[in-house]
Design a protein that fits this description.
seven-stranded mixed sheet; six-stranded mixed sheet; alpha/beta; 28 strands; 22 helices; disordered N terminus
């Protein structure tokens, strides 16, 4: 069976197969699905990102297809009992359409909002943004990718003129002589990526990891820098300070390919390594060794991830590491550069085609008159009819149900009751709505609050495209049809648009939607005009930008120039500033959050898979043994972590791999163990990224 073969059932009940990709992270590992007698199994498939490997989540992904918790009929909230009850599609859809009409008649078009997800296919993300702006004509649309990639995206745009997580193929990691990972733990979050890291180390390369915890990735590093959470920006400026004083700066590259270096040079002059050691806790010798390894290896890659980015200064932190990469002359050279490890499955494509508050398809700005005219022409509407920009995700959720905010919300592919910062407050906002509609495959924590729940197809039951962390557009292929009573998101969107009298057409055929997406993106930064299903099938994936079907795609950016008006990258001076919330006598510890190997995102799906539940059955709070001794807490005893916003309760897990002034909690669980009940809702002023990675807390033994 070739990579491009479509699912087909042979006579006599022979197995049906589909070459597709994992439904979880942005690595988008290749896999083959085989259906035999109604049972779907996952088989390995050689693909450049994972080379046949999968993590435990990938191997068990098909177990959700026929899970007993799977929704197969719409649910509506009964006015009499207040409970969700089964309903027909006709009743559910009219409840949604009628509710939308009633809210907009009373409060205006912006009184209805749409909230999407970074796991939606390109086709669904595109259709959702179009639906918001054409069928609802609301400016209020955003998505949970705002909490994943927005800071790195904003920093990349202002430095390079483009946002593509990795501007080079993933295989370049194996070629880097030095690899610096900042706030990244791929050994747990995307294990198959570590095959490329293993190649890098086997060839004699140096791996350096910056993380407050000695994670599974950090334990494999040649050098682990363990800073105080929230001090990565100062660390980056110190590395550039050392590069300047030691003569490591590639002055020819800086002069020929960049602008703005003088201001950055003056700024980092004040970041003396000894001062930064006192601020970050990272020894001067380790700072010097890192700068030397990056500058003298003959090829280096700097990668950032959520640990550095999920801060109220995340954009500036990423900018500081981009400044370092530019000063060393790394971007645009094979085996060198700056990149960002995208998190969600379609975290890249999901932000390119219109479900983000300020964007139109092709990564166009919604405030650009030419962009509005182009997209409106594809949609067959007047540019004047398109609403203006909305607000970032947390600001949107925090305004729900308030006098000036939306009174209705439609949610696709997200579970903000668990995933949003200050989640208790967000949960209250959702309860204040006149209408909450959730499209999902299980009764997630958010779906439990909904007035209408619409059962949706899973990844193995629909075709479409995803764009992975390299900017490679991939084909997702169905191995079977959805169960009776279940519809695809595209079909739901098209039906609602029709019921609301949308002038523009909405289809439920992914290939037709992708064809329209290609036209809408043509000429944009993320140009997919030259990408087609047939071309992906023939090549295994197409890197954007790809404006011409007959011309090569773009696996590697920046070789000759940057996509800025003058072709040069932009340095930007940035200064360290404290976290939005500092420790104090009442809240003397720092909490940081993250993932564990066997769970994913809000856990609504992975917590239902038996093997994953056995591997990671419950939440925990990671404490250093010295801190636990001071608190009188034993391993496995319940602790209460309290911030100014709320509290979480979970068993203590004692480990010397974390700083004694820091505690860690994974964010995959709801209820009393919900980490985001505690996290800070302060946001980056540029990206809207909340400060998930640091807040001030106190920890104490929980009373029985």
């Amino acid at each position: 069976m070739t990579d491009g073969a479509r699912p087909a059932t042979a006579p006599g009940g022979s197995p049906r197969e589909a070459a597709t990709h994992c439904p979880y992270c942005a690595l988008q590992c290749g896999m083959t699905l085989r259906e035999t007698g109604g049972r779907v199994e996952v088989l390995p498939r050689d693909f450049p990102t994972n080379r046949g490997g999968l993590c435990q989540k990938g191997w068990t992904a098909a177990e959700l297809l026929d899970h007993p918790d799977r929704l197969t009929t719409p649910l509506v909230r009964d006015a009499g009992t207040g409970q969700l009850r089964p309903a027909s599609w006709a009743e559910a859809m009219e409840r949604v359409a009628g509710g939308v009409r009633a809210v907009q008649d009373r409060h205006g078009r912006d009184a209805v909002a749409v909230f999407g997800g970074g796991g939606l296919t390109n086709e669904k993300a595109y259709a959702l943004g179009k639906f918001a702006r054409v069928a609802l004509r609301t400016r209020h649309v955003d998505y949970n990718g705002r909490w994943c990639m927005s800071s790195a995206a904003a920093a990349g745009n202002r430095a390079f003129g483009v946002d593509r997580g990795l501007p080079f193929p993933l295989a370049d990691l194996g070629r880097a002589r030095t690899l610096l990972m900042v706030g990244a733990n791929p050994a747990e979050t995307m294990p198959p990526l570590m095959r490329h890291v293993a190649d890098q180390q086997a060839a004699g390369g140096t791996l350096i990891v910056v993380d407050p915890r000695a994670t599974a990735t950090a334990r494999q590093a040649d050098l682990h820098l363990q800073p105080v959470p929230g001090t990565d920006l100062a660390l980056a400026n110190a590395l550039l300070h050392i590069a300047l004083t030691e003569g490591y700066v590639d002055r020819a590259y800086v002069a020929e390919r960049t602008t703005g270096f003088d201001e950055v040079r003056r700024t980092v002059a004040g970041y003396w390594p000894a001062e930064v050691e006192r601020l970050t806790g990272v020894p001067v010798a380790d700072l010097e060794a890192t700068a030397r390894a990056l500058a003298t290896a003959g090829g280096a890659i700097i990668l950032t991830a959520r640990g550095a980015e999920q801060h109220a200064k995340g954009v500036d932190t990423v900018t500081a590491f981009i400044n370092l990469a530019l000063a060393l002359g790394l971007p645009g050279r094979p085996g060198s550069g700056y990149g960002c490890l995208t998190g969600q499955g379609n975290g890249q494509g999901g932000r390119e085609h219109g479900q983000k508050a300020d964007q139109l398809p092709g990564y166009r700005s919604i405030t650009d008159p030419a962009a509005r005219a182009h997209v409106a022409g594809v949609w067959g509407v007047s540019a004047d009819e398109l609403p203006g920009p909305g607000v970032p995700a947390y600001q949107l959720l925090d305004s729900l149900g308030t006098p000036a905010g939306p009174k209705a919300l439609l949610v696709f592919g997200s579970n903000p009751v668990v995933s949003a910062p200050r989640a208790t407050r967000v949960e209250g906002r959702l309860r204040d709505l006149d209408l909450l509609v959730v499209a999902d495959l299980v009764r997630s924590e958010t779906a439990e609050l909904a007035d209408v729940v619409l059962p949706t197809a899973q990844w193995a039951e629909e075709d479409g495209t995803m764009t992975n962390l390299e900017g490679r557009v991939l084909r997702r292929r169905a191995v079977r049809t959805p169960p009776p009573g279940v519809r695809t998101d595209l079909a739901i969107i098209a039906d609602l648009a029709d019921r609301l009298g949308a002038k523009a057409g909405f289809g439920d055929d992914p290939a037709e939607v992708f064809g329209e997406l290609r036209r809408a993106s043509a000429g944009g930064v993320a140009d997919y005009a030259g990408v087609s299903y047939d071309r992906i099938d023939a090549t295994g994936g197409v890197f954007w930008p790809c404006p011409d079907p007959a011309a090569p795609d773009t696996p590697r950016l920046f070789a000759d120039a940057f996509p800025t008006p003058d072709g040069r990258a932009r340095f930007r001076a940035v200064d360290h500033r404290p976290a939005a919330e500092e420790v104090c006598a009442e809240y003397p510890l720092r909490l940081t959050t993250g993932r564990v190997l066997a769970q994913y995102q809000s856990g609504a799906q992975t917590r239902r898979v038996p093997a994953l539940r056995r591997a990671a059955p419950r939440a925990f709070v990671e404490l250093h043994p010295d801190l636990a001794a001071r608190l009188g807490v034993g391993d496995g005893e319940d602790v209460r972590v309290t911030s100014r916003r709320g509290e979480l309760r979970a068993p203590a897990r004692l480990t010397p791999t974390i700083r004694p002034d820091t505690v860690f909690a994974p964010f995959h669980w709801g209820g009393a163990a919900r980490a985001n009940s505690v996290t800070n809702d302060a946001v980056d002023p540029v990206s809207g990224m909340p400060e998930f990675k640091i807040c001030a807390v106190r920890v104490e033994r929980a009373q029985p």
